[in-house]
Amino acid sequence: MSQATSLLALDEVVFAWPGESHPAIHIPHLSIKAASHTFIHGPSGCGKSTLLSLIAGVISAQQGRISFMGQDCAALSAAQRDQLRADHIGYVFQQFNLLPYLSVLENVALACQFSKLRKQRALSRSASVLEEARRLLAHLQLPDKQLQQPVGRLSIGQQQRVAAARAMIGSPELIIADEPTSALDKTNREHFMNLLMAELKHCDSSLLLVSHDQDLAQRFQQVVDLPALNLGGAHEPA
Ligand SMILES: Nc1ncnc2c1ncn2[C@@H]1O[C@H](COP(=O)(O)OP(=O)(O)OP(=O)(O)O)[C@@H](O)[C@H]1O
């Protein structure tokens, strides 16, 4: 990787939604190191999800450079970006995005179907992908009897732990979590964050978590504040 320890780097990144005259995002510089924990905080509508979509390559910046694992993302084809994402990024979404007709184990194992690399890594730890899913879910304290059930039968807190296991299987370099605790009460939020942080130590992944919940900040080495968009639209991280 270039930039020695930088897993992800954004430089002078500007993005405006189509038809908008003011940018939703202007990031002069943001760097995320390997195996580090970064918290992006800001009020509703400040651009957190937009920033994550830029980093994930779902949308493209009009200006600036985003590099991930030493590669300039704009120089990659759409197919190359898709593969980079599947191999090296795990996601935990606000609404989990689990497939309700699959079992808990199958939902977790699914991430390895889109990435040979993550499958190989999972197999380097366990005898099969399903076994690795089982191991991760045990660490995240999912009761054994629920592993074969459709995810729809789980509580919200349990579904969120399944989503975390799916993001972490095959040890992607970066875990992106978009408001992962917003559906949880305070006790479950603390429990989820404790389990997530403990498991991250084992897989050496970097965590990039966005939330409006400032209470989470103390757990992170790097905190970036995205202020609310002012009337001029553009903002820079504090
Ligand atoms: N697909 C889109 N097309 C046009 N504008 C959009 C789109 N998605 C988001 N925006 C606008 O971009 C700005 C930032 O939205 P974004 O969803 O990134 O904020 P957020 O900080 O993630 O909000 P929340 O915390 O409520 O999820 C908002 O003004 C929003 O209306």
Automatic annotation (TrEMBL):
Residue ranges occupied by any ABC transporter domain in the UniProt entry: 8-236
UniProt keyword annotations, A-Z: ATP-binding, Nucleotide-binding, Transport
GO molecular function: ATP binding
PANTHER family recorded: ATP-BINDING COMPONENT OF ABC TRANSPORTER-RELATED, IMPORT ATP-BINDING PROTEIN
Protein name: Methionine ABC transporter ATP-binding protein
